[in-house]
Amino acid sequence: MKVLLIGATGNLGIRLVAALLTHGHSVVAFVRSSNKLESLLPASVYRQIAVVQGDATDAVSIKRAILDANCDAVVNTAGLAALPPWGNSELPAIFQAVVAAVREAGVERKKPLRAWFLAGLGVLYYPGSESMLSNYVPIYLEHRQNLDLLKSLPPNTLDWSMLCPSTMTPESSDFSVPTKLLHGKLIASAATPPSWQDSWIKYVPLIGKTLLCAMNARRYETTLEQNAEFIASDLESLESPWSGMTVGVISESK
Ligand SMILES: NC(=O)c1ccc[n+]([C@@H]2O[C@H](COP(=O)([O-])OP(=O)(O)OC[C@H]3O[C@@H](n4cnc5c(N)ncnc54)[C@H](OP(=O)(O)O)[C@@H]3O)[C@@H](O)[C@H]2O)c1
């Protein structure tokens, strides 16, 4: 596929450049600074991609980038959610602009585009309930409003998926192609975290489920490379099993 990668200079974005190329995709990187991207990538990799400079809050520029390059899919890794519940970041504005741009490009193409978005573990449901994990550990709440926006879209306007990892750590700072995955692939599940470990601790009055979320959280740490590989691999097929879903992930070794 031809993929517009928004936020290619970030921790996940830069690894997605390498992962997408490794999976045979064409990459159009949408970044604020092409110089920064060029300084981060090996010259042999930078030569293989197209670069568009722009701001991810500018829906018009994003839509033009999609249509001019004839992209089939979009991955947005731009913007970083604020951690405290009272925090504000640019992420919701970026998210709204990207969603608007991808929708409008789909209307012009007469076919909804495929798009991957990023959120966090907190928008997944506590297993066996309809309560989000962020009701028990209220951090990175901006992801919730982003998910609400996706869920409010009329059917067949955007073929979205939302990856919901916990903390992602780097495996390496080698962004050459092909990529080498050191930590194995991810196991994924829709809407809830895969392989949740239950415990009697959840019955502790008032704080039991919060304690259990905190105990589980470390198990869901994955690497940036694993998540990049997951998205790049999913985009190999036109029909994704994760279409219209939030997706929880865990390392197969955990
Ligand atoms: N890292 C984690 O552990 C983790 C865990 C769960 C979820 N997430 C989510 O995953 C996403 C990616 O995380 P990350 O660690 O890769 O973030 P990051 O390293 O902070 O990267 C953010 C990217 O967004 C770009 N950006 C910010 N504002 C922009 C704007 N107005 N226009 C264009 N580009 C803009 C930055 O570009 P510049 O280089 O120009 O600043 C950078 O490339 C975030 O939404 C984050 O909330 C991260």
Automatic annotation (TrEMBL):
Pfam family, one: NAD_binding_10
Entries under InterPro entries matching the protein: NAD(P)-bd_dom, NAD(P)-bd_dom_sf, Polyketide_Oxido-like
Recorded coiled-coil stretches: none
Signal sequence extent: 1-19
Protein name: NAD(P)-binding domain-containing protein
The keyword Endoplasmic reticulum appears for this protein: no
Bilayer-spanning residue ranges: none
